[in-house]
Design goal:
The complex is a heterodimer of chains A (358) and B (498). Chain A has 358 residues and is of the alpha/beta class. Chain A has 12 helices and 12 strands. Chain A has 2 domains: 276 residues, P-loop containing nucleotide triphosphate hydrolases (Rossmann fold, 3-Layer(aba) Sandwich), CATH 3.40.50; 74 residues, no CATH class. An 8-stranded mixed β-sheet of chain A has the order 6-7-8-3-9-10-12-11. Chain B is 54% helix and 14% strand. In chain B, the strands form 6 sheets. Chain B has a 4-stranded antiparallel β-sheet with strand order 5-6-7-8, with no helix packed on it. A 3-stranded antiparallel β-sheet of chain B has the order 1-3-2. In chain B, β11 and β12 form a beta hairpin. In chain B, α10 runs antiparallel to α15. Classes of the chains: A alpha/beta (358), B alpha+beta (498).
Amino acid sequence: MAEKNIILSAKDIEVKFRVRKNYLTAIRNVSLDLYEGETFAIVGESGSGKSVFTKTFTGMLESNGRVTNGSIMFHDVDLVQLKSDKDWEGIRGAKISTVFQDPMTSLNPIKTIGSQIVEVIEKHQKISKQEAKEQAISMMARVGIPNAADRFDEYPFQYSGGMRQRIVIAIALSCHPEILICDEPTTALDVTIQAQIIKLIKDLQKELGFTTIYITHDLGVVAKVADRVGVMYGGQIIEYGTVEEIFYDPKHPYTWALLSSLPQLGVKGEDLYYINGTPPSLFNRIIGDSFAPRNPHALKIDFAKEPPFFRVSDTHYAKTWLLDPRAPSLEKPEVIQDLHEKIEKMTGKGGAFYVDEQ
Amino acid sequence: MKKGYVLSRLLRSLISLLIIIVIVFILLFTLIPRDNIFFDDPTFRKLGGKPDEKTNYIYTTWEKLGYLDYVTISDYCVALYGQADPRVEAAIEPGSVESVQFREEYEKNGYTVAEFTNKKLYAFKDIPIAKRLLTWFGNLIQIDTPWAVQDPNNPDLERYIKFGTTPTGGLALIGSGTVHKYLIYTDSIFPFIHQNIITLNLGKSYPTFQGFEVLDVIFQSQGEEVKREVTFETGYTAESAIIFGTLTYKYNPDVMDRNKFVDNYANYQTRKNQPSMVGTSFIMGIIAMVLSYLVGLPMGVAMAKNKDKLVDKLGMIYIIFIIAVPSLAYIYLFRYIGTALFALPSVFTVYGSGDIRSWILPAISLALPSISGLMLWMRRYVVDQMNSDYVKFAKAKGLNKNEIFSKHIFKNAIIPIAHGIPTSLAVCITGAIITEAVYSVGGMGKMLPDSINKYNNSMIVALVFMFAGISVLAVFIGDIILTKVDPRISLSEKAGRS
């Protein structure tokens, strides 16, 4: 991958939530550099902090949550310092947009599709109503709504789930954002529609040149769309690297476990692989490696001291003591040994995650 | 919305109304002993020592109210020989040939024949409930035509309908041979254009408001007559409270009537200084309703926006207070505050309906509970909407709090509230029993319980008919409003068809 400009740089982000007089730490000192034009995927199980982390980029944390440490530099602005709606004007929805999980509920049911697109265009661009409408219709056509002009005045309930997600994407992209955060954009859709939506985002990215952050559980999707992957666990990114590095040369035991859990890797007649135990409680202070209690390969030090990031390559870092020269050498589990072919099979023609590229 | 749906919905409304009336009618006239209706009749009580007159009064009243058919030997003989025939005198005596004939004839027809204490005969026969119902529905809608009046004493009565003016100068459609003289007329009283062609007849009021049509009881203005200098068509000038538009045919006009009117149309209603019962309740209800929406909705919104903060908690205290404290208690408390601190009248009758001060306390008292209800529901709907995904997405789109609220949350939250507006309007007509009692307001609130207490059965049927009809209509209008504010809803006969 060629050297690229950093568009967004998060440093040591810590997010705390106040829940019933207690504070829980949802994000623990996460840093991330996002390069212009890339697709960065964040994977991890539920509650690992994927959504919360990206919400800090748009100031969308719930009212009881706060960024308590760190900085997020976007151009010359520290997003952590932005508080009021007024501060966010021109960034949220304009330069950084979000597509949420459930298209069925992301649109206001009693306003026309058109008005909901026009609304955001008028908000961020100083143009006339007529121009806004024309832009909205062209955006609708661009995301693949047939007869866009005719369907401009229809209501969300007259659209199917896939169509609604296209509209949500149209709204998110209508002001030509620099970063698009896709928060599990396909989870609520059926598989064939998923593939269409993924392809749509990919095509639009090529066309419009925005940077994409993908939040997903779906490693198949990641393999297909991402340039780089960050694996999150217990409120931290524990390993990141290019998609090839993460899939074919994972270093962190959690990444191994996650990849092993792919149901497609299961053998007929045998139990599917799963990770024992539950994620750590965020109310407690986590000592050592947060994955240690569930890690069959855990070392003694994992319970005592938090591992630093170890460099695997220029682009690949992992936060595990296994990479320490003093650690015993461990091979990744057999099931993910020749993952390359397996993934190829899954995302290639005829596979469950095949995306038609035409 | 389909025309077919509206029609079938109206039809279903009518059928349900019909069923309600049938049930109430049957309950009232079969389960309540018919002797009970005399409990509160002063005329009846005065007849205590005169058994024959009492019996005659009872049966005459029952006949008038449609319970039974009643004939005395006198009626029979008069019919036989004519009004002033000398033979009648002898014929009505007990044991006469006619008496034997009377007994035979009526017993054959299923009547029960009985004797007064003076041995004179009378006969009666119950009218079956089904027939009574049919009569009630048959008489319900009266359509005025030039052939409506058949007066044997006035064979030369002209029959026509023509355009003209009322003595007060309003345009009118004048009829002759019709029950009403002015079929359509205009004047300076709301709603300015009035019609008498189609009228409802819900029976006569008894034993309270004796001799009045039940609708007149609740719809005619109350209080003292407002007299003014009036010149009648004959040129006769007098102080009178007449409303010319209400003139109806009088079968036996007297000398005074002849002085005033050129024709037989001499029955009229008078203008009075207080609004009718329905009017009073409605005015009070409307003020209270407007007040409660103006206060309740913004309060509910404020509570939702400041959920769990001070405003929300204060609002909750108010809501719980209204729910927990009996209405009588807080109405008296409020009345005390109003009279002690703001010198407002403690009862409506001090200044009457013409003075704005009379309305303030009753209207606010009436609004107190609806404000709390609206606050509670509005808060809930706004909180619901605030937590919805599309609001989150609207925020992600970059809209600020005010834009999200005005463009998204408010419109969605108001939908269920809008549906209830026609119903709250309709409820105004039924009156407010406690508030009206506390402030001595002459409204509708006491009518239904009073009618039930005093066995004014026609009034009960009429009120049930009115309230049920208006409620059914209000819900229907509410549904239509719903289709206007919520595009997802369309009224159609079967689900899925739009």
